[in-house]
Amino acid sequence: MMSAACFCAVAALALTAVILNLGASRACSVTVSCSLFDLKLRDQDEGWRDGLRDTWCAGDMKPGDVYPFESSFVQLKQLGIVCADHVEIAMDYALRGGSGAVGADDMARKMIITRCEYYTRDWKIDLLTGGWSGCPPRPDGYRAGDWTIGDADGDGRKTFYDFRADPLDDLPPPRYWLPDCYAPYMRLSVKFAEEAGNEYMGVSLDVIVSYTLNSCSGQ
Q1: For residue 195, which of 95, 103, 29, 62 has the smallest C-alpha distance?
Q2: Most exposed of 139, 156, 174, 206 (fewest Cβ within 10 Å)?
Q3: Positive or negative: CA dihedral 105, 111, 152, 218
Q4: Cβ atoms < 10 Å from Cβ of 48
């Protein structure tokens, strides 16, 4: 019997500064208000807002299936007049359904990321390798590996499990003075691992990709 599963990803955002301290440390000395420092997201179906639903969604997944999501994306825009320092991107997930034979981490390890890109019209960063084309600006706190999803469990591939264990940091932020056509995008493609067995029948993975806009280095 062939196993079938599904996943849906939603996008959420957070803002970090002294008084915009939503789940982040108070590491910045700049005091701003929401009207001066704000992050908005949009995708292929929804306009600029605080959070998105079902940006990447696949049902009836079978082992070996590849989902390129060619028309799916998240784009980031900063509002306000306080210059952002960098963007962080993280992933979390939860399991729904199934017989209890597998857990959320088991399912996440079967979701192989085949493409993960962060880019504008002038540059592109491959978030699987850390390589880039064009000249993406490096925030002051950039360190080697910040732009790469690591292989946290050492299985030789990059999966949702790895993304949750090793979030991305110090990515170039959107700039409030640039038009929307210059705002950064993120795209994602996935593959359901060939070795997934019948224990994944009826299992769904709910995924949240969160974007954090930071106002200074070190956050």
Answers
A1: 62
A2: 156
A3: negative
A4: 15
Q: Residue 32: helix, strand or coil by DSSP?
A: coil
Q: What is the C-alpha separation between 203 and 7, in angstroms, rounded?
A: 9
Condensed to tens digits (0 to 9), the pLDDT of residues 133-180 reads: 999 999 988 999 999 999 999 999 999 999 999 999 999 999 999 999
Residue from 73, 111, 85 nearest 219 by CA: 85
**Single-letter amino acid, residue 148:** T
Q: What is the residue whose two structure tokens read 């019997």?
A: 1
> CB–CB of 174/48 below 8 Å?
no
Residues in the chain: 219
H or E stretch covering 39: strand 37-43
β-strands 132-133, 124-126 pairing: antiparallel
For the whole model, what pTM was predicted? 0.86
Using alpha carbons, select from 74, 108, 80 the residue that is nearest to residue 5. 108
Cα(162)–Cα(155) distance, integer angstroms: 10
3-state SS assignment for residue 124:
strand
